[in-house]
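Now read this:
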Amino acid sequence: MYRLKTSIFLELIELGKKINPINPISFCKFKMSKPDSNSKEELAKGVIGLLGLVMLSIAGILPIIGPMEVGAIVAYAGPAAIWPIIVGFVLFLIVSLPILEYTKLVSFAGGYYGLAELGFGRAVGKYTALANYIFYLFWQAANAFFIPVLILDTIYYLYGYLAPIWLWILIAILTLIITQFMAYLHPKNLSEILTYVTIATLIIVISYIVYAILKTPYNSVYYLNPANSYNGFKGIALGAAVTGFFLYVGYGSTLFYSEEAKHGRRDVWRAVYISLGVSALVIALSAYSIVAAVPLSSLSSIASAMFPEVPAWIHYISASALLALSVIVAIVAMLSFGSGAGAQSRLMWAMARDNFIRSNWLKKLSKNQTPVNAIILQFIISAVVTLIILAGMVTFYGYSATTIATAWFVTGTAATIVWYFHHFIPEFGLFAYVKKNKNIKYSRARLWIVGMIVPILGMILFLYTFYEGIISDLVEPYFAFVIASAIALIGVALYVIYKARTNSLGESVVSYMVAELGKEWSSEEGKPQK
């Protein structure tokens, strides 16, 4: 399977070379027409400031559910659960460097695929775009399953009551509806709403965390010592690789709003750093509050719990207050999912703008200057995917609290696999783009470190986590979702190869944008210069 994917990727590169001239800047000058600046089908310009970008990124990461994310980390690192979170944060900052450098070069609503296209040509760029879209479909389904898990499984744990199956379906579809409604809002309004609700909910969640810390009699520096990890540093490394690293993958939502930012090339990378830092702080603090809430002998039960804060905090916080927290987080999560849904719709819109997907209907923007038809399409597909997975899980495993939780896990697994295999491509795009464009000034050492060494290390990390987190323990229904994600990735590659051979890959708007900016990389300052 891996060899097949590799050979397809190499064929995409060769096709990209045949179709794209060596210098995409010259291609843009002579082969592309400038987009009509008077067209009504343009995204809003200059409406999102730095704070808005930060909140869009935080909404993608969603650190407000930090207490609910640390169960697996406790299983790997035990008392030292804060350290996989910290190590994962540092690793993520390092491996995301090429992407952040790319945001300084151009603001592109298509997100990651712009860098893949600049580096390897339209074929690889469009493969990355479609694979990214498949990721978002799985991710939206995972979001739709998360909210019922958060509400229904919390009720089941606290009160022993399993809600009827129709309520599971209703909450899942309602999640998708609210998510798409948020994506439909004008980007300025979306960022403002997310600013208010995220800050307010962070205050609430942190209040719970601090209260639990103040009430527990087990506070100790013991939990701050990495040497107390299960299996020593191996436990920390495994926890960081398999779980801690992927706490932060949602940061990329901000990239898709960069064309609508007031200062996209200046602020997007700053917003990513700030949002990652806030997320790491909240999640690490929540991990400490959970492991310090119970005696060391009880950590195993915490690690195996669906939501570890419930069995940890129940000693100090009432069941009704914990249920209220779950409801608050569920409501805010549904609103926050709008950030990713907006990113997904802009990805589809960017592909339509490139004429890779030949549809004037998908280019249509609402009065809010959002890709309204792309939002409608993604709701329909996401709802279908969600209902198919739900029906399959109930058919094979019956309806239970475990089935509700497993549906969320397996869908997230499929999303993670697709994320692996589309994300490492643009990581190498910066090096390829700079190397084939001699007019871009970039120091050799910086280029090799940021553009080659860091992506190689990142790919090794990806493969390690892919093996440890997914492949090493393939049981049903996870195996079926691994196969489904692999089929989706191969199907996308075959479709792009077909489009390339029929000369219907469309245009490369991101290449045109770079040419229009007329910027060069400064080897002295490492940023675009006139």
